[in-house]
Amino acid sequence: MSPLAWAEVKGLAARFHLPSGQVTFLFTDIEGSTRLAQLLGDGYRPVLNDHRKLMRLTFSDCDGAELLTEGDSFFVAFADATAALTACVTAQRALAGHTWPTPAARPRVRMGLHTGYAVPHAGEYATYEVHRAARVAAAAHGGQVLCSASTARRVEELPEGLSLMDLGLHRLRDFDDRERLFQLVAPGLESRFPRPRTMDATPHNLPAAPTSFIGRVDEQVKLRQLIGEQRLVTVVGAGGAGKSRLAVAVATELVDSYPDGVWFADLASVTDPALIAVGVAGAFGLRPEPGRPMPDTLVEHAARRKCLLVLDTCDHQLSSLAPLITRMLAGCPGLTVLATSREPIGLPGEAVWRIPSLSVTAPADGGPSDAVALLLDRATAARGGRRADPAEMPHFDRVARRLDGLPLALELAAARLRLLAAGQLAERIEDLLLSGPGDSPNRHETLSATVSWSYKTLGPRAAKLLRYLSVFAGPVELDAIEWLLGADPLDPLAVLVDKSLVQAEPTAVGTTYRMLDPIRAYGQRKLVQAGEEEAARDRHVAWCRHAAERAGRDAEGRPVTLSMHTLDPLAVELRAALRWSTTGGDVREGLRLAGALDQWWRERGLAREGRVWLYRLYERMTSTDAPVPSRELAMAYHMHAAHAGVDGEFAEALRFSQRAEAAARQAGDPGLLVRVLAGRGAPLVDIGLTAEAERSCWETLRLAAELDVEADALFAVFYLAQLLWRRGELDESANLLASARPLEAARPAERGRRTVDMLLGLVALERGDLVAAHEHLQVALRSRMAYGFGARAVETLNAIGVRCHLGGLPETAAMLFGASEAERGRLRCSAGSYAVYWAEQHSRTRALLGDRRFDALYAEGSALPLTEAVAVALAVEHPDLSSGGVYAAQSAASEAPTVPIRVKPNNQDH
């Protein structure tokens, strides 16, 4: 008797001796049998017969009782659960190893097992356990073996190499409870399948996030709104920007809006373009059908459904994915696609939404920024639940800003907090920016790996532009990029923007372009590897000089009043260029760059930073033995003296002023020499040598007249006018200042400060002329704020406080005094020669108001930002003109009488 005949005999015998008690039921059928029959035609019957033979032999060998065979289906009962599972794995291996007419003709059989109590009657079972087994089988895919939890519990010991993988709880059709399903895993069997075909209560397969989703409230609202309006929305951003997490978070909230489900497909693992449709089909639980293109199966399935399809990580298969999405959107009117990618898909009607980094700005109502909140949450987890100390918050904020709020970078930084304190992490943040192997197999593993993946997709021009752009420290306009590259950058720049390696940010006056810091760090490393660093950074230095010069000129190239506001956006680039000048570039270029930031450093409270940069340039000059002309050294030393004076280092200021004088004399430049000597008065007064300061000022004015460079002596006039004012020689001081007004107006670098008006206001205060004092000081304050001279605005606030005290407004005076001194502290600048005067005026107001009232108002003013304090000062009403004024004020546009500077005789004591 043949093996097949013997198997049929055994099966018939078993039918009359069916197992009782705990019975394991098996259902099987061929997935896509109808499509397979259509494909094979007359060739289907031999395939079906071979399938039946293989299955019967296996079930017979494992003591299975065949109850029903109908078409391509089997219903078998086993007394032993282990034997049933062994039968299934044996059958699957037999099917896989059999020689079929063609590979496409191989039947893919799905199998499902369930164990329950059953007693046979008249050669059959009448129990709901049979129906449960049938539903388990219906949840399986071709080639897959599923079993219920009851079957898994009754398996005593699986053969070596076999195991059961827990697939979680699922709701089977027609059953109210949820069944835990297991997949049989064994050598020779497929192991990766779509989700089981079950009736889950929640129609989605969105991945469960291992960590909480932080922030992005506004972004979620905008993205939900866009999905409601458009059928294809692509979230575009750099690697690690949080595209996937945001897409999943928004899709989760939209589950109830799509009755036919929200389905997620991660395309990162699809390396073969030909399999892109199979990867998408897996989201819906679909498998390929024999002889039918997968796109046809997808369109047929979704044609009458209202569902949301989330396609994650589309960027590396765009050419294959685009036509598939086009076809699905055309054939499935109820389908909406939400994609994530580093670049747009490029289809008509696509809504491209660029994801911003997490906000690094704290909300107005308090609390941490989104970026810091993410760091805090992950740091708590990394530290085993220990929350961050409040003292660590500045360090967390520093890390978040340095990492540009990039979520992947923040996650990696938080992981370092297992080993480092927040302060240590902030100090080592550069290591994180460059961490990780560039060829990591997991492109999301490190920052370097995720940027490297995108970099490898670039052509030569775009790759070079990425490297060159890394020398910019902040956002820049198109003309700056063109200057740097020396060619039209539009085409390669468009590639970088599309691939989210460069951020395009529209502004009111145009578009700026910038790199996130992690991408910039990668580009800088590639720049060095390509041997291009010196060329690119030298070009950047040249551009910085050009930009600084352009900031002081109008569209026609004419000088304009110097404004610190125009230097604010350039400062970050100038600092980057300075860094190169002190490490690998030209020290003379560095000194010129420092000169461009001369006043900016002092007005922004950064005089100490300016000194540090100058010291670094001196060190490089010495170490490289670079020749620097005496004129350029004189200018640097003169600038250094001014920084030191503002920083309260008066002895250093005098020392560098003397060095500047020696270098200027060696250079033989009369104008420069006079400018250096004109600044000598300040450090001399600051160290208490008032008489010597006055003598120096007169001698400088005399020298300027002899050399015919009177305009360069302007600061000597200012210092001398201050000395005369403090000594009570008010007419002499006013005459000097009247002579200085046209000189100040003619010098773009000085006229925005309105020093003449500031000093005339102080003279008017000493005369008791509140009308003149009010108008001079208001003019000075408005101009200083308009042109960004913050440190000098502090002086003017104090002076207007004095005017308020004299005008019967001591409460306002106390507030302005508090605001002025608090801002001076924030700017870390010395009061210099005004220190004694301000202290005297504060004491007068304190005596009038009393300590308690003065301190309360002073504290109230200290809490005001500079802009609000200025608003208070400018809101002070004009004094009553009828009260009488000694002088009419000279406004900004007034034509003040020009009084020649009078040089006193040498033998006169000053």
TrEMBL record:
- Which PROSITE patterns does the annotation name? GUANYLATE_CYCLASE_2 (PS50125)
UniProt-recorded name of the protein: Putative ATPase/class 3 adenylate cyclase
Name the InterPro entries for this protein. A/G_cyclase, HTH_77, Nucleotide_cyclase, P-loop_NTPase, TPR-like_helical_dom_sf
Q: Which GO terms describe its biological process?
A: cyclic nucleotide biosynthetic process; intracellular signal transduction
Q: Which domain of life is it from?
A: Bacteria
A Pfam family annotated for this chain is HTH_77
Any one GO molecular function term: adenylate cyclase activity
Please report the stretch or stretches of sequence annotated as the Guanylate cyclase domain: 24-137
